[in-house]
Write a structure and sequence with these properties.
Radius of gyration of chain B: 21 Å
Number of helices of chain A: 17
Oligomer: heterodimer
Strand content of chain A: 25-35%
CATH architecture of the domain at 252-341 and 429-520 in chain A: 3-Layer(aba) Sandwich
CATH topology of chain B: ABC transporter involved in vitamin B12 uptake, BtuC
CATH class of chain B: Mainly Alpha
Distance between the termini of chain A: 47 Å
Low-confidence stretches of chain A: 1-7, 516-520
Mean pLDDT of chain B: 88
Helix content of chain A: 25-40%
Number of strands of chain B: 2
Largest sheet of chain A: 6 strands, mixed
Distance between the termini of chain B: 56 Å
Strand order of the largest sheet of chain A: 6-9-10-3-11-12
Number of strands of chain A: 24
Shape of chain B: globular
Chain lengths: 520, 343
């Protein structure tokens, strides 16, 4: 490796020995990242490894406490996003920075507008953007409002924003998290195009498949420290994940054949009204979940999965069909009554999973404080609650500053999620409804949650899993249902279907009942 | 008919300009409930300004010269001073809401309570009564544009349109319409307007593109204050006979309703203002309203209670808002103090 302290103009960007602390926690500790011109450089690490912090330093959002940044060998100071833009560094943020009610055109020019006699010269901008979008294959509808466009197009708008500003160094922060499989394929193509045109790309991700496919080199971070940089073609997924986690990781969920037993959950012609528009969010859905199987509902976010779960768990009222659980009709029962046979790992842990200003131990007995174990003549037995919480903390490795007495709000997202999972799995109910159970968890924790779910399945539980992550869907489920626009458009055996095929159903291009699909 | 058009415009114009004032603040991301207060303050300053000009003898000089058009310059000058006063007054809201990140609803309400109290206090101290009026003359004879000023003979009969738009009108009306168009163009066709609107929708996105959100919001609120102050002055001159008593008959709140009804967009706001102006006009003069000039007073002959007509504008506000506020869409980030660390 070159001596970083000398600077080397082979690299378009060098970040040498970067250090960044937040209130005593070292987020970046002596990290070096060197980006070559025209390469796609992946930055790999678990949640909290310091990837976003490092990129925020490069983009001028944070000021580093130590180290230097060089561009083309020259030391530069980047104190704000404006400085970064002036140095032709652009970033596609994980959460898009778009104005929903503006047109695509206005979003692209915002902040870099050209004017004529004080008026916006939209016509010239339109010509330039059209040229850029043709050159790089970025299809956008310039007159559509952002709120009416797909996530994929929104991302292309973000990329065009960077190109419109003549950015040379393009940072992509977890760009694939929100995309469908076909959109991911398209993005990969676009990224390769950009690199071929001489742009230098930094690609933040923790998805090994994508990194292997698209990147030239990979820099791995772990717990704020620099682990190493490797050439993608000289490595493999297993090696990368070991570098990322620091120990050998099981990438594939180990599970045996499912042995489905009796029907636990029977949903028939079930409909749930939408809170946004007048038609139903879930319409005429029928399926069964048996004991000893994991049924997974796949689909792109916003196709009725959330509403289906709300309807099943009783958060939202249904307006058609019936649901029976363990042979009992629960269609009109309250959330509490349904909970007698059902565990629920909710999608939004802040809204439905935890009371953020309660302590961890209070949260752990939210549904159970009236059980004999935890009360004595209507008074809560605090010692019993604390012991119980302590036990769950150890079993599920929930990390927090003050143990059972930590306020839920002060815990990290991953640990909040683990707390919810611990509580719900330990309630030991016949049906487990798990909505994106591994959201916000890193590879190690995902491995743990997956194995716990498989264990529950093998113990004869019925598991209804809702997930947006296709990898998770494919590896964990025994049966897959695809939801599109509130309907179930297909049922699959994970062993006999490909991710690409599922993608077609998820986007409505195909459906099994022969009604014919919309255009892709 | 001519009377109806003229009178409707008279009411519609302050509503329109003050509703647009609200748009500038809210599109930048700051809820401006204080439109009423800013109007009251602007109206007061406008009347004070007029009184100062009276006491300096400027108006008498104009009357002596015989060219009533030059009076209009003084009217515009008073409007400019009111606009500046409104701008200064709005800084209170801007500072509380943007720099101190206070609750914008409460901040606006505080200003609405403060303005009438302050104005009434000042009026009582200076005028020794509850209302501040012109010390001599009246606004109708001084500031109104009449057909004689266009060179028409007294006996000359104007067409209905000429009667509606040229005789017994106020220049302020046309000035405000022009200003309204200019401000709307600024909001939609310029760099400044685009950036201002972005700050009310997604300030984090604006900041990531190098836009100074804090600065934009200050400017938005100050423009809002200036327009509302100016609107107050127009109200005082044209509908309140150039007097100030610490209220603008709820025009600020009506303007707020017009803004919501107009979905924070200029054209629907203009239409909404005219609708409300029409009902205001009917409320004020239903008994003498003679639409086609045949001497038949249709509304008066309906025999409804007078109070019903007085209620009409507010009743209509309530009904229209009940039906339209569901589909109207406020700027997404309004009311939320900008916090750069939130992403």
């Amino acid at each position: 490796m070159d001596d970083p302290s000398q600077g080397n103009s082979d690299y378009v960007i060098e970040m040498n020995h970067i250090r960044k602390e937040f209130a005593g926690i070292v987020a970046n500790d002596d990290i070096t990242l060197q980006l070559r011109r025209g390469e796609i450089h992946a930055l790999l690490g678990e949640n909290g490894a310091g990837k976003s912090t490092l990129m925020s330093v490069l983009f001028g959002l944070y000021k580093p406490d130590g180290g230097e940044i060089r561009k083309n060998g020259q030391v530069v100071k980047i104190n704000s996003p404006n400085d970064a833009t002036a140095l032709h560094i652009g970033m596609v943020h994980q959460h898009f920075k778009l104005i929903e009610v503006f047109t695509v055109l206005d979003n692209i020019i915002l902040g870099a507008e050209d004017t004529k006699f004080g008026f916006l010269s939209r016509k010239e901008a339109r010509a330039r953007i059209t040229e850029l979008s043709e050159k790089y294959g970025l299809r956008v509808d310039l007159d559509a409002k952002i709120e009416d466009t797909t996530v994929g197009m929104q991302q292309r708008v973000e990329i065009l924003k960077m190109l419109y500003r003549d950015n040379e160094i393009l940072i992509f922060d977890e760009p694939t998290a929100v995309l469908t499989p076909s959109e991911i394929d398209e993005l990969m193509k676009i990224m390769k195009n950009l690199a071929a045109e001489g742009k230098s790309l930094l690609f933040i991700s923790h998805k090994l498949n994508e990194i292997m496919e698209v990147s030239d080199r990979v820099t791995v971070l772990r717990k704020g420290k620099y682990v190493g940089t490797v050439n993608t073609k000289d490595t493999n997924k297993q090696e990368l994940s070991n570098m990322m986690v620091g120990r050998p990781v099981q990438l594939v969920v180990e599970k045996g054949e499912a042995v489905p037993g009796d029907v636990i959950l029977d949903v028939s012609h079930f409909s749930v009204p939408s809170r946004i528009h007048s038609r139903n969010a879930v319409s005429d859905v029928s399926f069964q979940v048996r004991e000893g199987e994991i049924l997974c509902i796949a689909g792109i976010d916003g196709n009725g999965q959330t509403d289906l779960v709300y309807g099943l768990t009783g958060i939202e009222k249904s307006n058609g069909g019936t649901v029976s659980l363990c042979g009992r009709d629960i269609t009109r029962l309250s959330v509490k009554k349904r909970g007698e046979d059902m565990s629920h790992i909710p999608e939004d842990r802040h809204k439905h999973g935890l009371i953020l200003d309660f302590t961890l131990e209070q949260n752990m007995v939210l549904q159970r404080f009236l059980e004999a174990e935890f009360q004595n003549r209507q008074f809560i037995r605090f010692n019993a609650v604390r012991e119980y919480t302590q036990e769950l903390i150890e079993r599920f490795d929930v990390r927090s500053a003050l143990g059972p007495l930590t306020r839920a709000r002060s815990m990290s997202g991953g640990n909040q999620q683990k707390a919810v999972i611990a509580r719900e799995l330990d309630r030991n109910k016949k049906l487990i409804v798990a909505v994106q159970p591994t959201r916000g968890l890193d590879v190690g924790a995902i491995e743990f949650v997956h194995s716990e779910l498989v264990k529950e399945r093998d113990a004869g539980k019925a598991i209804l899993l809702v997930s947006l992550e296709l990898d998770e869907v494919m590896s964990l489920s025994d049966r897959i249902l695809v939801m599109y626009e509130g309907e179930i458009v297909g049922e699959f055996d994970p062993k006999k279907v490909t991710v690409q095929e599922l993608g077609l159903y998820m986007t409505g291009a195909r459906r099994q009942d022969g009604k014919g699909g919309a255009t892709a | 008919m001519a009377f109806l058009i003229r009178q409707t415009l008279l009411y519609a114009v302050p509503l329109m300009i003050v509703a647009l004032a609200g748009v500038f603040a809210e599109r930048s991301g700051v809820i401006n409930l204080a439109l009423e207060g800013m109007m009251i303050f602007g109206a007061y300053i406008g009347v004070v300004c007029m009184n100062v000009m009276v006491s300096l003898g400027w108006f008498d000089a104009v009357k002596a010269s015989g060219n009533m058009w030059s009076m209009q310059w003084y009217v515009l000058a008073a409007m400019a001073v009111s606009a500046m006063a409104g701008c200064l007054f709005s800084m209170l809201l801007a500072f509380a809401a943007i720099s101190l990140k206070a609750d914008q609803t409460i901040g606006g309400t505080a200003l609405n309570m403060m303005a009438p109290a302050l104005v009434l206090f000042l009026v009582r101290v200076t005028a020794k009564q509850n209302i501040l009026q012109l010390s001599s003359g009246d606004s109708a004879t001084w500031f109104m544009v009449k057909k004689a000023m266009w060179g028409f003979e007294k006996s000359y009969k104007l067409s209905v349109m000429g009667e509606a738009f040229l005789n017994k009108v106020y220049l302020t009306t046309y000035f405000c319409i022009l200003l309204f168009v200019v401000m709307a163009v600024i909001l939609y066709k310029t760099r400044f307007g685009l950036r201002l609107r972005s700050c009310g929708e997604n300030p984090q996105a604006s900041a990531s593109l190098g836009i100074d959100v804090i600065r934009m919001r200050y400017i938005g609120v100050m423009i809002s204050g200036a327009l509302a102050g100016l609107g107050g002055c127009v109200f005082a001159i044209s509908t309140a006979n150039c007097s100030a008593n610490g209220e603008v008959s709820g025009f600020g709140f009506l303007a707020l309703a017009v803004m919501i009804f107009g979905n924070w967009k200029p054209l629907p706001i203009a239409l909404g203002a005219i609708l409300f102006g029409l009902f205001k006009c009917i409320a004020a003069s239903y008994s003498t309203l003679d639409v086609n000039g045949d001497g038949y007073f249709a509304l008066a002959n309906l025999g409804l209670n007078a109070n019903f007509y007085r209620m009409l504008p507010y009743l209509i506000t309530l009904i229209v808002l009940a039906f339209t506020s569901r589909s109207s869409r406020a700027p997404k980030a309004e009311g939320i103090p900008y916090d750069p660390s939130m992403r």
